[in-house]
Amino acid sequence: MKSGLALFVIVLLVLSYHTAFGQTSNTITLTTDKTSYSDGDKIIISGTVSVQISIPISIVIKDPNQRVVMIGQTSPDANNSYSTQVTAGGSLWTSPGTYEIDVTYGSKDTTAKSTFEFTGLSKYPIEIQGAMYNATYKITNGKIISITPVINTKSLAISIQSSGNGSLQIILPRNVIDAKQGQQDSQFSVQEDGSQITPQETKSDSSRTLTIPFQSDTKEITITGTQIIPEFGSWSFIVLTFAMAVLFIYSRSLRVKHGTPII
Predict the structure, then answer these.
(1) Structural domain tally of the chain?
(2) Residue 224 in 3-state DSSP?
(3) Within 10 Å of residue 48's Cβ, how many Cβ atoms?
(4) Which of 83, 169, 232, 255 sits a CA distance of 20 to 30 A from 143?
(5) Are 204 and 178 in contact, with CB atoms under 8 Å apart?
(6) 202-224 in b/e burial notation, b at 16+ Cβ within 10 A?
(7) Domain span at 96
(8) What confidence score (pLDDT) does residue 14 get?
């Protein structure tokens, strides 16, 4: 009787060991669709698990200083695969650099890590009469399709594809476009699909930053200033006038030297 009980206990121990081993051998994989993202980009996080358990997969994203910028959850499907999508950027994504994704499934022993580069603000090239300039921007719930300079109206026409109510923050170099009344800054005229709106603005000596809200059905944002390159400013006009005067005087001196009548 005692030997039978001892055998039963041994069998239970063996089964418990294999059950525990099976639980600890659960694994999870992790991958992203790209290695680098800009503000507003979609990040697709996916992977597989070896064994399903009745709890969700936790997802944590950390910035280069190991501060948590996002926490989320997802669950594996019937094929033990999972996939979810998050948007890069937001008020907590303040530092460009290497970001870390941690996924955990059930216990700290079932984890996976991956990294990606977050570039922060995006740059869009603007061509004005053969010269290239960059507009630095951040957009939420949308993407920029094109930025077209309109020289005769001193405007930038920004075509966007919106996925919901959002905002566009754009840094405008003063040497590209500016709004002035005399020597003082004036307000840019900003229109959303032809309707006048008032953006928020911050300034520096070299640029002006506009934060422009838009609706889910917005197609175009137009920013109009009082000057856009290329233009002749006051100093350019003075230099040009001086150069023409020097050329005229030089021409007259050559005529006098060679005895050519001066008309």
Answers:
(1) 2
(2) strand
(3) 16
(4) 83
(5) no
(6) eeeeebbbbebbbeeebebbbbb
(7) 26-118
(8) 43
